[in-house]
Design brief:
This protein has 205 residues and is mainly alpha-helical. It is built from 11 helices and 2 strands; from the N terminus they run ααααααααααββα.
Length: 205
């Protein structure tokens, strides 16, 4: 069954574009959420997570399975998470590589990583990144799960830096506990906010 699933995934993935997952593939990949993952499954997911051919949202769709499926923790992915969190520039992805690394790492190993992450927050005020970082699956999860001071300080820093983002750009989406995106606004409200934000930018310029 598992071998067949991998074959089906390979076949369906060819129908995906660089930026959109085909509905058939999305349906198949959901099956990996709860089954016991084999080494082949892990290798498949890791390969898709680091793919440079696809946008970060597609890579995140594969990373989330490694994080929510308990059987993934049976495999030593410490080096995988560490190497990728060092290379990753997108903070929305980096925080989840950190979440994976935290499964295996000690608090002492995480302190320098979170210090660098806090400095990155000061330079980055992308509202999309903060939707992920401040979601229940991001820094709040790390604080509640591990209680490390370095996570608490990073959450405080993220909340502080988040205030610098225009209010019209805050609170569009978030992630739930399964790392699935949840829309917080209606399409009508999004359109209204977008119009107001563009008008504000026009008047500022």
């Amino acid at each position: 069954m598992n071998d067949n699933l991998l074959s089906e995934l390979d076949r369906a993935f060819k129908r995906c574009s660089d930026c959109i997952l085909h509905p058939e593939y999305m349906s198949l990949i959901k099956k990996l959420n709860n089954i016991k993952l084999s080494k082949d499954h892990i290798d498949y997911l890791c390969d898709k997570v680091v793919s440079k051919k696809h946008i970060w949202e597609i890579r995140f769709d594969h990373l989330r399975i490694l994080l929510i499926n308990p059987s993934a923790m049976e495999y030593d992915l410490k080096a995988f998470y560490f190497e990728n969190l060092k290379k990753c520039r997108r903070l929305a992805m980096k925080i989840f590589f950190i979440r994976g690394y935290a499964i295996y790492a000690s608090e002492e190993e995480l302190i320098p990583i979170m210090e660098k992450f806090q400095k990155s927050l000061e330079k980055n005020h992308d509202y999309i990144d903060y939707n992920y970082i401040l979601s229940v699956a991001g820094l709040p999860y790390l604080v509640n799960e591990y209680g490390y001071d370095c996570f608490a300080k990073s959450l405080e820093k993220a909340q502080e830096e988040h205030k610098q983002i225009d209010p019209l750009l805050r609170g569009y989406v978030t992630l739930n506990q399964n790392l699935e995106q949840v829309n917080l606004l209606t399409q009508e409200e999004i359109s209204r906010r977008t119009y107001r934000f563009l008008e504000k930018c026009k008047n500022t310029n």
